[in-house]
């Protein structure tokens, strides 16, 4: 009985230690910059991201997952930015990221480098209807 309690105690202490190492080793996000964005403001682009620069709460130890740098979240955010631009007509947008690490305070700065290229503009839309089709007779009846 005594051995089980000690073993459980050590397992719990080990898990707490590993969890604290994970939290402490996570790099905070010092700053997020956008370069090359001419159409959308930096604040509009920031709203598309999951990653957020550190806030007052993260400075006092109340970190959220999005306050810490993770490569897989950065990759998701790159996709989100591309989708945002493409939904707004910039089909050939090119976005890449550059991460600068600061060992002194275990933080990173993220730059998103954007090449918007020209937006796709629709000049006109033309509908062609075969005069022998059912749609033609429906159009005549509705007039």
| Backbone shape | elongated
Q: Helical residue percent?
A: 40-55%
Radius of gyration: 26 Å
Summarize the main sheet: 3 strands, mixed
Which CATH first-tier class of the domain at 27-120 would you pick? Alpha Beta
Structural class: alpha+beta
Stated plainly, the CATH topology of the domain at 27-120 is called Ubiquitin-like (UB roll)
Please give the alpha-carbon distance between the first and last residues.
90 Å
Number of strands: 3
Main-sheet strand order equals 1-3-2
Q: Please, could you describe this protein's structure?
A:
It is a single chain. The chain is an alpha+beta fold. The protein has a domain at 27-120: membrane protein fhac (Ubiquitin-like (UB roll), Roll). The protein is 41% helix and 18% strand. The chain contains five helices and three strands, in the order αβαααββα. The chain has helices at residues 2-25, 42-46, 56-59, 71-87, 134-142; strands at 28-35, 94-102, 107-115. Strands 1-3-2 form a three-stranded mixed β-sheet. A hairpin with a 4-residue loop joins strand 2 and strand 3 (107-115). The longest helix is centred in the first third of the chain and has 24 residues, at 2-25. The protein is elongated. The N and C termini lie far apart (90 Å).
Summary of the model, kept short:
By secondary structure, the chain is α+β, with helices and mostly antiparallel strands. The protein has 5 helices and 3 strands; from the N terminus they run αβαααββα.
